[in-house]
Amino acid sequence: MNLQSVPIEWYLSLSAVLFTIGVIGVVTRRNAIIIFMSIELMLNAVNLTFVSFAQFLGDSAGQMFVFFVMAVAAAEAAVGLAIVLALFRNKQTVYVDQVNVMKW
Fold it and tell me: Does domain 3-91 have CATH number 1.20.1270.90?
């Protein structure tokens, strides 16, 4: 199935729905792992938008941005997992409202 056979509005609508689900996950959840998964979902929604516009406009710049976003997402996942593991070792919880390491 060719990307041109499906209107770009469908891809943008799917991207908006995925981004909204990610924002709701970040705002409502208190588990750090779920928050990182929601951030990854938002980054993938942006990737879908970049690829859709790149295909629609016939330009590969959007696909190059996707590679940069994927690299940032991989680094965020690695650093985020390390932070979550360090917090769990010190506080025995992954809930962000129970962690107060930034207080004096």
Answer: no
pTM of the predicted model as reported, rounded to 2 decimal places? 0.82
**90 Cβ contact partners less than 8 Å away, ≥ 6 residues apart:** 101
Q: At what angle do helices 32-57 and 8-28 cross, to 10 degrees?
A: 160
> Where in the chain are the domains?
3-91
Rounded distance, CA 77 to CA 44, Å?
13
98/2 Cα distance (integer angstroms): 49
Could you report the per-residue pLDDT of 25-77, keeping only the tens digit for each? 999 988 888 998 999 999 999 999 999 999 898 888 888 999 999 998 899 88
